[in-house]
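Next comes one such specimen:
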Amino acid sequence: MGTLRWLCFWVIAATSWVCAAAPAPIPAPTSRLVDQVGVLSDAERAALLARLQTIQTSGRAQVAILISSGTEDAPLADYALEVAENWQLGRAGRDDGLLILVVPSVTAVIVTNMPDGVTKSTLPKSQCTSS
């Protein structure tokens, strides 16, 4: 009976340790475009940054892009929300922050948790689809 208890204890302990894996660290918002993977050329990076600046100065939205090497075991939507909150995207009273999270190793694209300020003006939900 004692051996069975110890076996159950170690199985539960090991399961808890595996399930409690640390989430991927959130990078510092050093720019509107953070490319942790290094997939963009200098020209592509400059073009995207110019586009993001144009969107922000037009008053439509405050958009940032994170190209990440992964989210560890965190679901994409949870990690994206955590990054967006940490980076404090969006202007006060406008609810217009939008994070585009790109993980090149993942074969899906998810646009989630878009604030009302963005969906009403810049990216209406009727024009956004997911597959």
In short: Strands lie at 33-35, 62-67, 97-102.
